[in-house]
Description:
The chain is of the alpha+beta class. It folds into three domains: about 10-90, Rossmann fold (3-Layer(aba) Sandwich), CATH 3.40.50.20; about 120-180, Dna Ligase, domain 1 (2-Layer Sandwich); about 185-355, ATP-grasp fold, B domain (D-amino Acid Aminotransferase, Chain A, domain 1), CATH 3.30.470.20. Helix content is about 30%, strand content about 30%. It has eleven helices and 17 strands. The chain has helices spanning about 15-30, 60-65, 80-85, 95-100, 105-115, 130-140, 165-170, 225-245, 280, 285-295, 320-325, and strands spanning about 10-15, 30-35, 50, 70-75, 120-125, 140-145, 155-160, 175-180, 185-195, 200-205, 205-210, 215-220, 250-260, 260-270, 310-315, 330-335, 345-355. The strands form three sheets. Strands 9, 10, 11, 12, 13, 14, 15, 16 and 17 form a nine-stranded antiparallel beta sheet that branches. Strands 3-2-1-4 form a four-stranded parallel beta sheet, sandwiched between helices. A four-stranded antiparallel beta sheet has the order 5-8-6-7, with helices on both faces. It is globular. Bound molecules: adenosine monophosphate. Adenosine monophosphate binds near residues 120 and 214.
Amino acid sequence: MTLVPPGSTIGIVGGGQLGRMLGMAAAQLGYRIHVFAPASGPANDVASAFTEASYHQSDRLAAFAGACDVVTYEFENVPLGPLALIAGEVPVLPGLKALEIAQVRYAEKGFVRDLGGRTAPFEMANDVEELVPALERVGLPAIVKTVRLGYDGKGQARVDDMGQARQAWHAVGRQPSIVEGFVDFSHEFSILIARGQGGATVAYPPTWNVHRGGILHRAAVPAPASIAAQAAEAAALAERVAAALDYVGVLALEFFATAEGPVFNEMAPRVHNSGHWTIEGAETSQFENHIRAICGLPLGSTALTGRRVEMENLIGDEAAGWPRILAERGAHLHLYGKDEASPGRKMGHVTRIFAA
Length: 356
Ligand code: AMP
């Protein structure tokens, strides 16, 4: 176990809002933050050092690694090669195995299925010729998802009849994709756990997630009974995944609640949008627990601070409603400092704590 004591410098690869909130949690514990990102963004506003460079500029990466005591990442599409280069010089946590698996949907689903997780039927389609047989094996309706670089419902297309196969292939940008059977679910939920360097693990209560247009709209805790009944099985799976990866940090797994039980959808080897409620709604936020884990500190309690907590994302123009939110009692406003509010862009969030 490597203790990285307060006063040390934590490197964050990636410059988005997750990096910003990680940075704020780290600062609270007395750490300094060094952000490495290709462009200025929400994270470097709260960092004491910022390297603005491409992930492929190995000299800049090496200098960054040399200036940090531990390095973490805030999005899962960081190229692996450059991170592997610095991993020899400075601890990179969570380890690269988690990143490698989470970057490829097909590998991710197979990995979790091998650990006993339930998944939708899924098949690989490397080109349009493989798409129709894959759709036939999986059955319709199905969803075609790019195997890499998909998030927030981007790079996805639904297929209800075989006549739509070519159109779907074009919609996902004619890239290697996985074809997934459509899951008949009552709710979506996520499990967030934090695992420390010695293997100790804490889990947050399951979070009920409501999406709009493939983007998280609202996250609520406690989750309804139909999710709560499936949470123990899902959390046990998350712990097996984390143990198999010798994982350190916060890990998020997303599930569909179905009549057969929890169906795993995807995982994120990082702090997660569905855990933003933990900043005010849990005794220790996901961001603080991630920092504690990668620095070798004891993990903090995940208990709720109120009876009920709801987080709502402020997407695009919704962030313009901030004066109204500020006037609301019990509402905690977070704005990410992004300049342009384009449609679908996450500009901030609001967390509401309900005492009763
Ligand atoms: P993803 O990028 O995989 O998280 O997908 C974005 C959203 O699309 C999910 O949160 C679901 O609402 C929906 N979705 C994804 N995969 C499936 C599936 N196999 N069956 C039904 N809905 C899905």
